[in-house]
Every structure is written in structure tokens, then in C-alpha cells.
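Morning F.,

Quick status update on the modeling queue. The single chain you submitted on Monday has been processed. Sequence for confirmation:
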Amino acid sequence: MVNDPMLLSGETPVGAEPAPGQGVAELMGGSGVPIPPDNLVQTAFDNYAVPNGYGDYAPERLFTPEGLQYILGSLHGLLFDKSVAEGATIVESTITQEIDEGHPVLVGGVSQSATINATVLQAIADGSYQLPSTDQLPPGSTPLAFISLGDPSAPDGGVLERFNFAQDPHASIPSLGITFSGGDPTNTGIPDIIYNLEYDGLGDFPQYPINFVSDLNAVFGIDLVHNLYIRGLIGPDVGLTPAQIAQAVQLPVTPGYDGGTTFYEIPFTGQLPFAQVIQDFAGKPLADLLAPDLTVLANLGYGPDPDIGWSTTPANLQTPAELFYHLDGAQVHDILQALEVGTAQGIHNFMADLANPSAADIPAIFAGFADPAASATAGVATSLDGVADDLSNAVSTLSAMGTGIGDVINALVTVLPANLATLFFGYLQEGNVLDAFGMPVAANTGLDALGFGVIAAILLSNLPTVESDLGAVFDPSTFVDLLGTLF
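C-alpha cells below.
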């Protein structure tokens, strides 16, 4: 477990000029947050930098593009690969400047900016970025360190490594601007601390993606889990508390490993993402009936332990997806027993829900019909210019959505089959007939789930905006106000 000291705000407020020789914590936002707000920077600093020994650093917010075209509702934003590349250039320049000025540097990233961290570390490892002289730093200080949260480039669990196969290295989806670039280098000797949440589909994707239940649960976790690392990001009092972060489990590494990286997995204590989606669409009783067994099935996508939702292989090894794992008799018994216990618990919870119905049992998707006033939140346009603006915004967002969804479908029906064929022939050339036929099926299962997740993210991110804009345009009071203005 991570040590649980008293967490205090840093001695230096966010953005204050660091003292000579003082360390600087350069903290980035995630996708769609190019300039993180001061309060979130302070929270991230207090909750992750301070307990890891960087409490005397001066926290700074660092601009990086953090583009994610289409998903963020734009036809003109940066695609992922280009956004990461530009962010890495900014980080490298910042590191050089701060060290030249005599400041040790901690770089913090979350989600997309965690991949920026991985890109910078890779540049250091392959020599394409040279660290400046550290002679001017205080004696005994650590020149450079990294902290990454929700890391898509985690060596064992990051989605950008899970589908980076030796038989088809660094496969890409050009239409989406995403390359499966592999995991963080883990032998640079530079301190690097990686935190991932259980069931976060970007940092904790199943090792055995032929398990479709596990894949879907991870994809749902991209929306329901991935945004929880920094408390307050998606709402007041929403996100991990210091106490929850302190429960992080340090993951095992290979014997004798001393490459600089420490890996933590934070157990997820909320509703299983798959069960949460069922609850939103079909109500709490059905979700509670299925949740215990769904949890077991989801966990089996990471390995044979029915109680753990992350891989238990050495975390410092680059670990792409695999086909199957071996089960002995004792493990089969444990799995069947877990399913039996889960079934009994699910039935008990289901009957309890039926015996004590409440408004909370109404599927969330129908909540607006149960309380019409709750859905009447759209702004109302009160001028011709306002109507035109709202209509234009809705059309623009719909256009971006259509383009993004079209690109995902194009990738699934054209690019993916070509990549799977490369995988097939690669394993066949190695003489591995089982994986030649099995791994394309497993990879296709996982990538189809991811494609579904991207489409869902596009819809969930943009439909509320479209609904609001069109609601304002077609609200009856809009026409009454406009008629009053005209006549």
C-alpha cells in the first residue's frame, strides 16, 4: 500500500515563482483540458506529488494541446498522435528550461498527458532528447521525475500497449490519428510513478480481450472510471479521495528490477461499470442481480483470479494482449465457487430491491420522463441572431459527430481487417498456429469493443450540446419572444 501521511497543500501556491534551487512540479491536464485550473492542479499536487515526497516543490500548470478531434465535438481539433507529439515537444522544452535555471523537475500527466510523459521518456531512452547538464541543481536533488495517472501507455494494462503486437508493431488507425505506440520505457533509471484505477479501460485494459464481458466493462470504465483520478474534475466532491489513493496496491515487478518505475493499481470500490450501464438503462434491480457474477466474469479478462480486475504479471514488462491462460483444478474450483456465491448474492440483492422500491430504481435514461421539470434545462434563444447561432452550433456539432463516427466505422471495416491479417501471417511465420487463428479473433473482439466505446463517447460527449442548442431553437417561448420582437 502507498504510505498514508497527512496530506497538506504544498508550501508554494500554484503559479508562484519558485525559489532558487526549488523543485518545480509541472502538471498537465487531460484530453480537452489544455490549461488545467489552479484548483485541480493543487488537488493533483496534494494527492499524488506530496505523498510521494515532492511536497516541497512549487506546483505549476503546464499548457499542452490535449486535443481529441471528433470526441470533443470539433472538426478542426488535433488528432491524438499529433496532440501528443506537440505536447511532448512542449514538455521537453520546459524540462530543459527549468533545469537550466537550477530547478529539479517533476512532470505530472493524466490520461493523454500520461502518454506525453511516456513519449518524453522514450525520447530520453532512444537519445532523441538529451537532458541538459544538471551541474547547477542543488546537490543530491533528483533532476527529473514523472507521475502518470490513468496511463494509456502503461506497460501492462495501457491500451496503447495491449494492441502493440510484435507481429504488427505500432499499428495505427490513420483516420482517428491513433497509433498503438507501446508502453512506457521502464529502464531509464528516471523515477516514474504510474497510478491506474481498476476497470479504467485506458490504463487497465484486459490482458485477454477474447473475454467480451471484460472488454465491454473496460470500455464503459473509460467514461465511468477514467475521469476520477483528480477529485473535482467532473463535479464537486466527485473523484478519488486521499484515503482511496492511499489504498493503492504496489504491483509486482520482475525479480531484481531497478529501472526507476513504480506501479500502483487503485482498487475501484464503486459500482462495476458494466452493472452501472445496466442500471442506467434497465433499473437497479436487474443491475444488482447481475453485478456479482459480471464482476467475476470481468475480472477473468485479466487473469484467473476472480477477485482482481487487473493483470498480475510483472508490471514493468511490455505486455500485449494474449489469447488464453492455463487453469489448474484449484483455479477452476475457485472460479465456479465465486460464480455460485455471486449468483446467490445477486438474487438476494434483486429480491431486496423489489421489496423496497424507490425512485432511485427508475432507469436513469427515463428519469426525465418521470420528472419532466428535470429535463427542462435548455437555454432559450431570444433573438434571430441567437436562433441562428444555436442552429449553427448544432449543425456543426452534428457534422463533427458524423465525421467521427464514420471514421471509426471506416477503421473497423477497412484498417482493422488488414491489421488482423498481418497478425495472422506473423504468428503463422513463427509456427504458432493456435495464436495465428486465435489472436486475430481476440484482438478483433477487443478492438470492436473499443470502437463501440469511441462511438459511444462521441455521442455522449456531444448529444447534450446538440439537445441544448436545438431545444433553445425550437422552444415555443422562443417564437413568442421573436414575434414580440418583430411586431
